[in-house]
Amino acid sequence: MAWTWRFEKADGTETEPAVQPEEFSTQSDAESWIGEVWRELLEGGTDQVTLQEDGTTVYGPMSLHAATEADSGGTAAG
After folding, report:
1. Per-residue pLDDT at 70
2. Where is this region: Disordered (predicted)?
């Protein structure tokens, strides 16, 4: 089994990531990696990512912008 990330713009088109990924042997390894590099990916033009296992979507797209908002302590108005 190979776990990989698909890197996308906000409109869902695939984009080249700022950090070169690898194939991961476990979902946990893939998720740990994205947790370490998401800021660099976002700064490099990736808006969202999708996790795939052997070419099949497991989940996503997952916005990298939402992580930024959570880190800033922002709250929704209302």
Report:
1. 53
2. 1-30
Name the residue with tokens 């409109």: 11
- Cβ neighbours of residue 53 closer than 8 Å, sequence gap 6 or more: 1, 2, 3, 27
Q: Burial code of 22-46, b = ≥16 C-beta within 10 A, e = fewer? A: eebeeeeebeebbeebbeebbeeeb
- Give the model confidence (pLDDT) of 43-77 as tens digits: 999 999 999 999 999 999 999 997 555 555 544 44
In the chain, count of helices (H) and strands (E)?
2, 3
- Cα–Cα distance, 59 to 45 (Å, whole number): 20
Which helix (H) or strand (E) segment holds residue 49: the answer is strand 48-53
Say if residue 39's pLDDT is above 60: yes
